[in-house]
Design brief:
By secondary structure, the chain is α+β, with helices and mostly antiparallel strands. It has three domains: 106 residues, no CATH class; 100 residues, Immunoglobulin-like (Sandwich); 161 residues, Sandwich (Jelly Rolls), CATH 2.60.120.260. 16% of the residues lie in helices and 35% in strands. The strands form six sheets. Strands 12, 14, 15, 17, 21 and 23 form a six-stranded antiparallel beta sheet that branches. Strands 13, 16, 18, 19, 20 and 22 form a six-stranded antiparallel beta sheet that branches. The radius of gyration is 34 Å and the shape is elongated. The protein starts with 12 loop residues before the first helix and ends with a strand. The relative contact order is 0.11.
């Protein structure tokens, strides 16, 4: 029997080459698609990370408490944009205001991962208003704010009244201190003091966004209202809140009176230097303190230096005088210690000093009360008031440029007609 066998054929070289080329093309297409997907994923994850970093800097506006924004991030605690991303996770240097880390939980699996984009390149940030990623070969930018002032220079308004809803009027505007404590931007706290106008309205300026403690003080009785205020970015202040004392300071007091007297001439003691004015009394006579605009100061080392000023004669006051209060507004420059001040009254050629006050780097109101005339030990008379000189004495221990200064002096005479 004859056996017929078919010849078995395999792939030829050309066919094999075609298969390899097709596989290569498919692989390249697949790899390109995979690379595109990976890049898109990295791009999306980088944008989310940059949003988390932005929230760490300025806070998340969607986080609220009782309907009020409560998250202001690094800026809310420190009053400045961070110098770099590291400051979001590590205290920049013993700052008492730093309360981080501000990075969201789970975003810092290692010590530097939050500073790198999804391609492993460092985010570009050096304290400004944008964060940038360049790891993809192009720049991805996340704007934190339109301007630094949006979060650092805001206003907050309010109104002060007493229990009868009476405003201070012109008589009591200097008797109400509005004190707010804000972060300095360099790791410490700064106290700022304001006075309302006669209608009780006040504006706090240059406020960083965040929640800050506020004290409204009726100084003659040290009656204090304590609140926390929420300063929103871009001056988005709600209707001015009312701060109402529990006593009738302004309405009942109208049955009595307070006359405010201000310097109108230099007095018998003129030992301080002046800045921003021709005569020393002009540095301290303003109704609203101009603070660094004009002030008297001492550059003498380890010595008390005194300025007293002649005052306006009384006009409206009459009846029995209950007390005389000397107010002055002072501060020091720099961090040097041992900078002090005292209120002074001068009667018949003799100076009488109040308690020693330790000055801080923030302009602050101080006061001293004399219930009776210290020269006689008797009740004040209106002749005493018209002959009175009042001012301050300042002390500086050691040399250097750190000076104590005073920008405002006034006297309140309280009386019953």
């Amino acid at each position: 029997m004859k056996c017929l066998c078919r010849q078995q054929r395999g792939f030829g070289l050309i066919e094999m080459a075609v298969v390899i080329i097709v596989i290569g093309i498919l692989t390249a297409v697949a790899m390109r698609s995979a690379t595109t997907v990976i890049d898109d994923t990295r791009h999306s994850r980088t944008e989310r990370e940059m949003q988390m970093l932005a929230d760490a800097v300025v806070g998340n506006p969607d986080i609220t408490s009782n309907g009020i924004r409560s998250d202001f991030g690094y800026i809310g605690d420190n009053g400045a944009f961070p110098p770099d991303l590291e400051a979001l996770a590590v205290n920049p240097g013993g700052w008492i205001t730093w309360d981080g880390p501000y990075i969201a939980a789970g975003f810092t699996q290692d010590s530097s991962g939050f500073k790198l984009d999804e391609w492993g390149s460092p985010y570009a940030y050096s304290g400004g208003i944008t964060i940038a990623s360049t790891g993809s070969g192009s720049t991805i930018t996340r704007k934190i704010a339109d301007a630094t002032s949006d979060y650092l220079l805001n206003q907050f308004a309010g109104i002060v009244t007493d229990v009868d809803s009476s405003p201070p009027g012109s008589t009591f505007v200097d008797s109400v201190d509005i004190c707010v404590t804000i972060p300095s931007g360099a790791g410490s706290l700064t106290n700022k003091t304001y006075h309302p106008d006669s209608a009780g309205y006040f504006i706090l300026d240059s406020m960083p966004a965040g929640s800050h403690p506020l004290r409204v003080i009726y100084t003659p009785e040290v009656d204090t209202i304590f609140r926390y205020i929420t300063v929103l970015p871009r001056h988005r202040n709600p209707a001015p809140p009312e701060y109402r004392f529990a006593s009738a300071h302004f309405s009942v007091a109208s049955a009595s009176g307070t006359e405010v007297l201000r310097p109108n001439e230099s007095g018998d003691d003129t030992e301080l230097n002046s800045s921003g004015c021709a005569d020393n009394f002009e540095c301290v006579d303003e109704v609203t303190a101009d603070e660094d605009g004009s002030y008297v100061y001492t550059s003498s080392s380890s010595q008390w230096r005194t300025d007293v000023f002649r005052l306006e004669d009384h006009i409206t006051g009459s009846g029995s005088i209950s007390r005389v209060v000397v107010y002055w507004r002072g501060c020091k420059t720099g961090s040097a210690t041992n900078r002090f001040g005292k209120a002074v009254i001068r009667i018949s050629g003799t100076d009488y000093e109040g308690a020693q006050q330790t000055l801080t780097t923030s302009w602050t109101d101080y006061s001293e009360t004399w219930v009776t005339n210290p020269a006689t030990g008797l009740a004040w008379t209106w002749t005493d008031i018209d002959d009175l000189e009042a001012g301050i004495t300042l002390y500086r221990q050691g040399g250097g440029p750190k000076v104590p200064a005073c920008t405002q002096v006034w006297v309140e005479v309280e009386y019953t007609p």
